[in-house]
């Protein structure tokens, strides 16, 4: 009877986590795509850690679907808003937000890569810290239609979620407690996001 009592208390707990967790993950990743201040990579990794420790089937698959859909819709919405800003005489605050996070040097680099490798650059830009918005702005300047951008952005979002979900699975497998895995996954994602900027500062001429 003891194990029945434990099971009866465990299942509702996981059900509650899923009922709250997946919609929350969707909203935060969507907002993170629109307003690039939310650490969406850390969110996906943390959700993967929690899903790894759950007994419910398909928990990791649900994290993958939820985060991928939210990232794709967020990117598509931001690109659509950027296109509207490009066509407006006065621009838009969304277009200015993209430009403010796409320095001229990175924009020129993104434009060169986009001309050389086309859609493949979108996949790489999603995996590189601070690489998404310069490439998006390059697509806007090149007047890519919405369909072309979406076609390239879909595999980019899928690859991005897989990458950060694997980080979460790694953190979850190394530690017995979910919170320990979350801390490890968040720390690793922060290191990944900070390393490129530190490397550029080291290489920059004094």
From TrEMBL:
Sequence ranges assigned to domain VTT in this UniProt record: 46-168
Cell location: Cell membrane
Membrane topology value: Multi-pass membrane protein
Segments traversing the membrane: 25-52, 59-81, 154-175, 181-199
Main location: membrane
Keyword tRNA processing: no
Domain of life: Bacteria
GO CC terms in record: plasma membrane
One Pfam family from the record: VTT_dom
UniProt keywords, alphabetically: Cell membrane, Membrane, Transmembrane, Transmembrane helix
Family: Belongs to the DedA family.
Protein name from the UniProt record: VTT domain-containing protein
